[in-house]
Specification:
mainly beta; globular; 12% helix; 4-stranded antiparallel sheet; 3 helices; 22 strands
């Protein structure tokens, strides 16, 4: 009888051990899973922000402690021409909803230019919000109001202990967080586009990586770059070389951590994979990204509208081709993609200004 009991116990231990090893293998496989193409997984939901009287562009999402979703967006009066207004009239607005799918309601204007002679006189644009070091961190661009605004674009930072502010300028109101370098050994020295399209993450190694778009001199190639700091508030040091090897222009980079990799989602306006779609660039260290990007999202008109153009649509920007731009991701509690927020230069329902749209990620079965 004792031999039977002992045998039973040993068998039970063996089974438990095997199951534990199996679970460990599954966990190991799960941990090393690499980022994959996202484009086929997005399901179009509808409008996230439709604010009468305004063009709304580029909505960066974040959840608060209560689970509400906040969007920080660039907006300006739709009474002014789109191509001029975003450069000089744009302000950063705050919206909130109980659900990631909305409806989103306007809360307040967070930041706008004062029309003076400073670096941030006007054109508050490209907002990107993250929670880093237990602070809400908002990076954005602004310019000094010059007629040729491109070279004067700079990146600023606002931080707050609360999603509702007050917001503090970093390093201060009179100094941008990042400016183009003058050192000609650095790829974007004297950039004809200044520095723009900011997106900030904290690397697992503790460093802070600020991604941005710039130009090589006044007539060179437009690329994405990165500046690094050991402190959230800077100073940020621009690295000597661009971070991607693209031959044609990419922009609207949204940086995020996914599956132990550093990812950058950009637009694909010139057809590297799919003209009018999105690209997903993947990196081990955040300093150099894979030469061949994955597909981030599809061209809206070709994929969702089957090539058709809505009769009621209002073209504000970009012509009669419906595409999504400035992609901004909301990740779930497991740091997996959950929702994608994008504006379009075409108001699909005929609104008087551009709207922001939301897509939901459908996980593979």
């Amino acid at each position: 009888m004792k031999k039977i009991i002992v045998s039973t116990i040993l068998l039970s231990i063996f089974i438990v051990s095997c199951q534990s090893q199996k679970n460990n293998r599954k966990e190991a496989i799960k941990q090393v899973a690499s980022p994959t193409a996202m484009s086929d997984q997005w399901k179009f939901v509808g409008e996230a922000i439709n604010e009468p009287g305004y063009d709304v562009w580029g909505s960066s999402p974040i959840r608060d402690e209560q689970g509400n979703v906040h969007l920080f967006s660039a907006r300006w009066s739709s009474d002014t021409p789109f191509k001029t207004a975003w450069r000089y009239q744009s302000e950063i607005a705050h919206y909130v909803a109980k659900s990631p799918e909305g409806p989103f309601k306007f809360v307040e204007v967070v930041a706008k230019g004062k029309g003076n002679d400073t670096w941030n006189a006007t054109g508050f644009h490209n907002p990107s919000i993250k929670k880093i070091d237990n602070k809400y961190v908002l990076v954005f661009i602004a310019n000094d109001g010059a007629k040729k605004h491109g070279p004067s674009q700079r990146i600023g930072m606002l931080t707050s202990n609360s999603i509702h502010g007050p917001w503090n300028a970093v390093p201060n109101e009179n100094t941008p967080l990042l400016s183009p370098p003058s050192d000609t050994a650095i790829w974007c020295a004297n950039s004809g586009l200044g520095v723009n399209n900011p997106s900030l993450i904290k690397h697992p190694n503790g460093k802070y990586l600020l991604y941005f778009k710039a130009k090589a001199g006044t007539k060179g190639k437009v690329s994405m770059g990165v500046a690094i700091s050991s402190k959230l508030e800077g100073p940020y040091v621009i690295q000597p070389d661009p971070i991607t090897t693209n031959e044609v222009r990419i922009e609207d980079g949204n940086a995020f951590l996914w599956r132990n990799k550093i990812c950058l989602m950009t637009t694909d306006n010139h057809g590297i994979l799919e003209k009018g779609g999105g690209l997903l660039w993947v990196s081990e260290d955040g300093l150099q990204f894979n030469a061949e990007p994955l597909s981030g999202f599809h061209n809206y008109q070709d994929f969702y509208l089957k090539g058709n153009f809505p009769k009621e649509a209002n073209v504000r920007y970009g012509g009669k081709k419906v595409k999504l731009e400035r992609p901004q991701l909301l990740m779930d509690a497991n740091n997996e993609p959950e929702y994608l927020y994008c504006p379009s230069g075409v108001a699909l329902d005929g609104s008087d200004g551009t709207n922001n749209y939301v897509l939901k990620y459908q996980k593979k079965k």
